[in-house]
Please model this.
Amino acid sequence: MPSKVLDSWALMAYFKGEPAGLAVEELIHKASAEKIRLLLSVVNWGEVHYGMWRAGGQEAAESAAGDLSRLPIELVDADLHLAKQAAIFKATRKMSYTDCFAAALAKVRNAELITGDPEFKELEKEIKINWLK
Model:
């Protein structure tokens, strides 16, 4: 079963009801039908949480956290192997450290990264990226 890594950009689009969120919703349906496996780094989970808090307050953040816990998305802990790959990306690219965790998870798990964040452009030759619009 193919694996796909959700970046926080993609999940924020989903939770905010943005057009790119429709593609994320389709992926969630595919994961529910066990056609794909969706992965999310706990570091990116934290970015979604604080992003929703900033956008709509604590209630919005807690609502999104509750929704995430019920979705067919596997949370992946930031172990040493993942942290090292994220650190390599951070040292060699102009990216936020949080985004480096999504990229590292995609690389380590040989998965496609789902995002619309242009910060990942530098990694197009190193990991597979599904660009949301």
About this structure: The chain has one domain: 3-131. The two ends are 25 Å apart (CA to CA). The chain has a mean pLDDT of 97. The domain at 3-131 is CATH 3.40.50.1010 (Rossmann fold).
